[in-house]
């Protein structure tokens, strides 16, 4: 991928796409193509095809998706399935039709069966039933992996699928009804500390185990894969380390300086009991995560506080 290459980052307004654009610019890639979802609806096949024919990108990072936490996924499954199936299918097919040199498809660790052996290896895919709270999203992501792999096998397309674990970092969604656990707890604890509240609600039992990858580490992995990996997917991206939601809550409380109680709310779902990726395949290819969780949470806290202040200043 030379510095003049034309690169399309699909989903540049999201946390992952935003991190990719920052990283690519830092490395001197200036020929980037982006479109907001208002400018280009990737669920629209004709519009997506016309865009690819007009822009003719050589490299594509497919980071556009409808994403959300456990509550959003279980409340809007039809939208999570339809939007993500359409986005994946339209972008991958248009990339094939217009001769894109390489495409990097981003999925999620929720593609693996709910009770697959841990840490989750890539070959666990399609070996058992999925977790019900995000099955719709997972099925769409599995379809996109299958598309990439079959287009590779049948048409010789260099399409690679990376499966990141739970992500966090600058640009994350801090809306409490649709966000993932890490930004949600960060925000709740900042608010509680400022209000002098004595406790913070943590959904579920606190026992589920999750692994968290900083989005800048993911951007690093994506560039690595774009440069050095040409294999059928899925390929896991994570830290290889997990912790319980209760431990995560304690860590965030410590970083934020919230000293009140953590109250577990059993009326909310736990979701998958454990989701730790086996990261051996990408490690064998030469990549590993660098940002330690506490450091990453600290950076995300700074981003959140600054971002919140900027937004307040504008209003
Ligand atoms: P998941 O990894 O797909 O299950 O997505 P989430 O990040 O939304 O949730 C991970 C775990 O954190 C689940 O067991 C949630 O119940 C738990 N959790 C605890 N507190 C919260 C919260 O405030 N928001 C969210 N989204 N999850 C929470």
TrEMBL record:
<feature type="binding site">
    <location>
        <position position="270"/>
    </location>
    <ligand>
        <name>substrate</name>
    </ligand>
</feature>
<feature type="active site" description="Proton donor/acceptor">
    <location>
        <position position="137"/>
    </location>
</feature>
<feature type="binding site">
    <location>
        <position position="180"/>
    </location>
    <ligand>
        <name>NADP(+)</name>
    </ligand>
</feature>
<comment type="function">
    <text>Catalyzes the two-step NADP-dependent conversion of GDP-4-dehydro-6-deoxy-D-mannose to GDP-fucose, involving an epimerase and a reductase reaction.</text>
</comment>
<feature type="binding site">
    <location>
        <position position="188"/>
    </location>
    <ligand>
        <name>substrate</name>
    </ligand>
</feature>
<keyword id="KW-0511">Multifunctional enzyme</keyword>
<comment type="similarity">
    <text>Belongs to the NAD(P)-dependent epimerase/dehydratase family. Fucose synthase subfamily.</text>
</comment>
<dbReference type="InterPro" id="IPR028614">
    <property type="entry name" value="GDP_fucose/colitose_synth"/>
</dbReference>
<feature type="binding site">
    <location>
        <position position="203"/>
    </location>
    <ligand>
        <name>substrate</name>
    </ligand>
</feature>
<feature type="site" description="Important for catalytic activity">
    <location>
        <position position="110"/>
    </location>
</feature>
<dbReference type="Pfam" id="PF01370">
    <property type="entry name" value="Epimerase"/>
</dbReference>
<feature type="binding site">
    <location>
        <begin position="106"/>
        <end position="109"/>
    </location>
    <ligand>
        <name>NADP(+)</name>
    </ligand>
</feature>
<dbReference type="InterPro" id="IPR036291">
    <property type="entry name" value="NAD(P)-bd_dom_sf"/>
</dbReference>
<dbReference type="InterPro" id="IPR001509">
    <property type="entry name" value="Epimerase_deHydtase"/>
</dbReference>
<protein>
    <recommendedName>
        <fullName>GDP-L-fucose synthase</fullName>
        <ecNumber>1.1.1.271</ecNumber>
    </recommendedName>
</protein>
<comment type="pathway">
    <text>Nucleotide-sugar biosynthesis; GDP-L-fucose biosynthesis via de novo pathway; GDP-L-fucose from GDP-alpha-D-mannose: step 2/2.</text>
</comment>
<dbReference type="GO" id="GO:0042351">
    <property type="term" value="P:'de novo' GDP-L-fucose biosynthetic process"/>
</dbReference>
<keyword id="KW-0560">Oxidoreductase</keyword>
<dbReference type="GO" id="GO:0070401">
    <property type="term" value="F:NADP+ binding"/>
</dbReference>
<feature type="binding site">
    <location>
        <begin position="164"/>
        <end position="167"/>
    </location>
    <ligand>
        <name>NADP(+)</name>
    </ligand>
</feature>
<dbReference type="GO" id="GO:0016853">
    <property type="term" value="F:isomerase activity"/>
</dbReference>
<feature type="binding site">
    <location>
        <position position="210"/>
    </location>
    <ligand>
        <name>substrate</name>
    </ligand>
</feature>
<keyword id="KW-0521">NADP</keyword>
<keyword id="KW-0413">Isomerase</keyword>
<feature type="domain" description="NAD-dependent epimerase/dehydratase">
    <location>
        <begin position="7"/>
        <end position="238"/>
    </location>
</feature>
<feature type="site" description="Important for catalytic activity">
    <location>
        <position position="108"/>
    </location>
</feature>
<feature type="binding site">
    <location>
        <position position="141"/>
    </location>
    <ligand>
        <name>NADP(+)</name>
    </ligand>
</feature>
<feature type="binding site">
    <location>
        <begin position="11"/>
        <end position="17"/>
    </location>
    <ligand>
        <name>NADP(+)</name>
    </ligand>
</feature>
<dbReference type="GO" id="GO:0050577">
    <property type="term" value="F:GDP-L-fucose synthase activity"/>
</dbReference>
């Amino acid at each position: 991928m030379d510095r003049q290459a034309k690169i399309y980052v699909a989903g540049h307004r999201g946390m992952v796409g935003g991190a990719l654009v920052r990283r690519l610019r830092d490395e001197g890639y200036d020929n980037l193509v982006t479109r907001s979802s208002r400018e280009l609806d990737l669920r629209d096949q004709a519009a997506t095809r016309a865009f690819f024919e007009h822009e003719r990108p050589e490299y594509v990072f497919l980071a556009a998706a409808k994403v959300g936490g456990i509550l959003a996924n279980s409340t809007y499954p039809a939208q999570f399935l339809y939007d993500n199936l359409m986005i994946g299918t339209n972008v991958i097919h248009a990339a094939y039709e217009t001769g894109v040199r390489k495409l990097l498809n981003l999925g999620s660790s929720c593609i693996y069966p709910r009770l697959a052996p841990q840490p989750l290896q890539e070959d666990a895919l399609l070996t058992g039933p999925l977790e019900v709270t995000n099955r719709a999203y997972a099925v769409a992501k599995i379809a996109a992996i299958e598309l990439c792999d079959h287009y590779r096998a049948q048409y010789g397309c260099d399409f690679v699928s990376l499966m990141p674990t739970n992500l966090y970092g600058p640009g994350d969604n801090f809306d409490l009804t649709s966000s993932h656990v890490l930004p949600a707890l960060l925000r709740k604890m900042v608010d509680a500390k400022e209000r002098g509240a004595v406790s913070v609600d943590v959904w579920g039992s606190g026992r589920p185990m999750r692994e968290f990858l900083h989005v800048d580490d993911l951007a690093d992995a994506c560039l690595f894969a774009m440069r050095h990996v040409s294999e059928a997917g899925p390929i896991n991206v994570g830290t290889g380390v997990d912790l319980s939601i209760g431990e995560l809550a304690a860590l965030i409380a410590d970083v934020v300086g919230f000293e009140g109680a953590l109250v577990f709310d059993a009326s909310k779902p736990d979701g998958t009991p454990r989701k730790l990726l086996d990261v051996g395949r990408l490690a064998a290819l030469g990549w590993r995560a660098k940002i330690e969780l506490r450091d990453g949470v600290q950076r995300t806290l700074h981003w959140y506080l600054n971002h919140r202040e900027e937004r307040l200043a504008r209003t």
